[in-house]
Each structure stands twice: as C-alpha cells, then as structure tokens.
Amino acid sequence: MKNIEHLAEIISIEGYMVEVKMVVSSACVSCQAKTACGVSESVDKRVDVFVEDPSLFEIGDNVMVTITQSMGMKAVLYAYILPFVLLLSSLLLTLNLGFSESVAGLTSLGVVGFYYVGLYLMRDKLDREIIFNLRRV
After folding, report:
1. pLDDT tens, position by position, 20-60
2. 3-state secondary structure the chain
3. pTM (2 decimals)?
4. Which among 14, 16, 135 has a CA at the least distance from the CA of 67?
C-alpha cells in the first residue's frame, strides 16, 4: 500500500493531539520556468494528528506526516467529488423541473452549503476515519 508523505514541523502538543505545520508545494515548484510563469505556489497547512505517546515528540521537531493513499482518496472523495456530484445533480434536477437558471444555481449552491455544514458537524467521526501518522525524521 502506497503512502503519501509530507515533511512537517511540530508547532504544538496538547494531550495526545500534535499540531504540525507543513509546506505543501504545487507541482510547478521544481520547474525551471516558475519565476517567469508566476503560477507556482506553496501553502502552509496545519494538521492535528493523534499520537499514542506524545512524549516522543517536542515542539520544533521535524517529522514526516504520513497517510495511506486510500485514506487520501477518501478525503478527496468527501471534499471534492461528492460536492461536485451534488452540485451538478441538483442543478440539472432543478432545471429539468422548470425552475429558472438563477433559482437552480442558488439551490445547487445551497445543497453544497448544507453538505459542507454536515461534513463539519461530522468532523469528529471523520477524524477517526482518516488517520494521519507521524514519524521523526
């Protein structure tokens, strides 16, 4: 099973939760023309990781954040694919029911908004489902 890994730095430890900061770069970061293009970007991401033994880590440590590829795909499904399917299907349904384009568009955005609110309310369940691992570098 393949893993997705990112180098990160520990910024806080509270109980069994370790917060790490990682710099996620776009695919353009290694391109020779990135300075002329202006498309490349890197973003700081913060992730909370549950660890069984927080005494193994200290603030400022460099760690490798690891997630299995299947869990990464599950996260992509929840964050991008399902909302897109909901948006498109609700748009087509409301248009086929004879509503105007503006009503259909607003309805579709509302459906996706409710989806993300539901996702937010289920964040504790998702924290147990999508598991990150830490290892010292």
Report:
1. 998 776 555 556 555 555 555 667 888 888 888 888 899 99
2. CCEEEEEEEEEEEECCEEEEEEEEECHHHHCCCHHHHCCCCEEEEEEEEECCCHHHCCCCCEEEEEEEHHHHHHHHHHHHHHHHHHHHHHHHHHHHCCCCHHHHHHHHHHHHHHHHHHHHHCHHHHHHHCCCEEEEC
3. 0.70
4. 135
- CA dihedral sign of residues 83, 87, 90, 93: negative
Strand 62-68 versus strand 3-14 pairing type: antiparallel
Report yes or no: 48 and 133 within 8 Å, Cβ to Cβ.
Answer: no
**Residue range 59-101, pLDDT digits in tens:** 999 999 888 888 889 989 999 999 999 999 999 999 999 999 9
Q: How is residue 94 written in tokens? A: 């409301």
Q: What domains are there in the chain, each with its CATH number?
A: 3-27+34-136 (2.40.50)
Q: Which of 5, 1, 2 shows the shortest CA–CA distance to 22?
A: 5
